[in-house]
Amino acid sequence: MADQTGVTDQVDVIVVGLGPAGEMVGGKLAQAGLSVLGIEANLVGGECPYWGCNPSKMMIRAGHVLTEAGRVDQLAGTATVAPSWRPVAARVREEATADWDDTAARNRFEEAGGAFLRGRAELTGPGRVSVAGVEYAATRAVVLAAGTRPAIPPVDGLAETPYWTNREAIEAREVPESLVVLGGGAVGLELAQVYARFGAAVTVVEAHDRLASAEEPEASALLQEALAEEGITVHTAAKVSRISYDGAHFRLECGDDLGVTGQRLLVATGRRPDLAGLQLARVGLDPEAKAVAVDRRMRAGDRLWAVGDITGVGMFTHVAVYQAEIAVRDILGEPGPAADYRAVPRVTFTDPEVGAVGMTEAQARAAGLRVLTGVSQVSQTARGWIHGPGNRGFVKLIADADEEVLVGATAAGPVGGEVLSGLAVAVAGRVPIDTLRHMIYAYPTFHRGVLDAVRDLS
Ligand SMILES: Cc1cc2nc3c(=O)[nH]c(=O)nc-3n(C[C@H](O)[C@H](O)[C@H](O)COP(=O)(O)OP(=O)(O)OC[C@H]3O[C@@H](n4cnc5c(N)ncnc54)[C@H](O)[C@@H]3O)c2cc1C
Ligand SMILES: NC(=O)c1ccc[n+]([C@@H]2O[C@H](COP(=O)([O-])OP(=O)(O)OC[C@H]3O[C@@H](n4cnc5c(N)ncnc54)[C@H](O)[C@@H]3O)[C@@H](O)[C@H]2O)c1
């Protein structure tokens, strides 16, 4: 096999899937001296560098530049802005993805000492995996790191249409005249705003009664307002009953009185692992489960570990690589802390950017905590006032009144994901609220809004 180098049928460790999680586990175990076989069906690096985090953030960066340039008239003179998708598509091709070529990542893995096999793996039993009918055995560990794929809802007609997932949206060489985005979560919102900023007439259709429903309701309201201001149409609580395509346009039927049309349709309704395809039942695990259940050391069974999105936790690259480090330590028998998800940070890179960590207010109340909340508005801070146009946002803190620590926080605004950093430390480190109230915050920063929110806790 052309893609097969130094592959033997018995190794210490087999890693199934070389996305951010599997690449890290495989590379580190190989560097530690174990014989590692890494199996990847598609591109070494996974979803994040080729169709996820990196190219989408390059697109978002370009959209932000356009919007900032549009504010010159209000702040600094005059500017004429003429959006062009050409440099964006070129940068995604040339800089982010090397035209979807994983040679560099594969070399990196092999230079770390791993043996690489391109193919789709399935489990054949404990410690055993097969690819294209050839079986491989691992004496020490099989690590499942097969990630997820888009969850396509069973809407009548959808499967017969040429809909986009994140992959086509990232690979696009042109901006459609109109785009319908099904799903108002992270993928849908980030890409909806990018495409709108480059001239598409965008409609977001969300089943839940608010956008970004995993986050604070204040974040949902903020995003809805910001998107509307940019001309994006948002339908929430929309139940799509049928989708059709007439060769030029998609049409979504949402009940009796709403029909939505667009030249392209992006389906962004979540992601699921393909557990049946991995033949999970052959190692005694439930292939119908939503994710592979793991303990706090990423163990999923006898000589079996799972890391990354396939575990259903977080579904972020930073969680995937966090779990990978824990699995590496556990497989090597090294000491170190077990997984702790109390302070998982997450950022939706819209404008305003929504950063959050730990629990939302609703989650804290559902957990039975005696909850205090504190809110400040970016526009009412000195920095927000100086910033002017584009200063929408807030800080919301969730505190455990008995423990006198923060258990969650949201920082939404121009650099919400960066403001989040201190809040993530406060939640992870259980910094006493009294300390947060009496420490010094640099003037005039966006993060000074945290002090106003701390003072507002009640
Ligand atoms: C549009 C978009 C934007 C995103 N933006 C961000 C962001 O800004 N920040 C963030 O933290 N996260 C972001 N994410 C999420 C991030 O991409 C994932 O959390 C991350 O890629 C998970 O890594 P993973 O290794 O678990 O899985 P994946 O990256 O999905 O990698 C799994 C790999 O396993 C391979 N595979 C699957 N089945 C098999 C098999 N049977 N045999 C062999 N190989 C197999 C796949 O081909 C794939 O390469 C984004 C996702 C999307 C879709
Ligand atoms: N910035 C980031 O870190 C980032 C960016 C993009 C994606 N991601 C990750 O990728 C994963 C997938 O993102 P996603 O946005 O696809 O999933 P998601 O679960 O975040 O959002 C999916 C949305 O689609 C809606 N939905 C589901 N079925 C629907 C239907 N039939 N009609 C209308 N709406 C429907 C849901 O209510 C939800 O709001 C996320 O878990 C996220 O962790 C992260």
From TrEMBL:
InterPro entries cross-referenced by the UniProt entry: FAD/NAD-bd_sf (IPR036188), FAD/NAD-binding_dom (IPR023753), FAD/NAD-linked_Rdtase_dimer_sf (IPR016156), Pyr_nuc-diS_OxRdtase (IPR001100), Pyr_nucl-diS_OxRdtase_dimer (IPR004099)
Full protein name: NAD(P)/FAD-dependent oxidoreductase
Annotated cofactor note: Binds 1 FAD per subunit.
Record keywords, A-Z: FAD, Flavoprotein, NAD, Nucleotide-binding
Binding site for FAD: 57, 309, 315-318
Residues in FAD/NAD(P)-binding domain copies: 12-324
Disulfide bonds: 48-53
Family, as annotated: Belongs to the class-I pyridine nucleotide-disulfide oxidoreductase family.
Origin: domain of life: Bacteria
Domain Pyridine nucleotide-disulphide oxidoreductase dimerisation, residue spans: 344-450
Gene Ontology MF terms in the entry: flavin adenine dinucleotide binding; NAD(P)H dehydrogenase (quinone) activity
Cofactor(s) for this UniProt protein: FAD
Binding of NAD(+), residues: 183-190, 206, 270
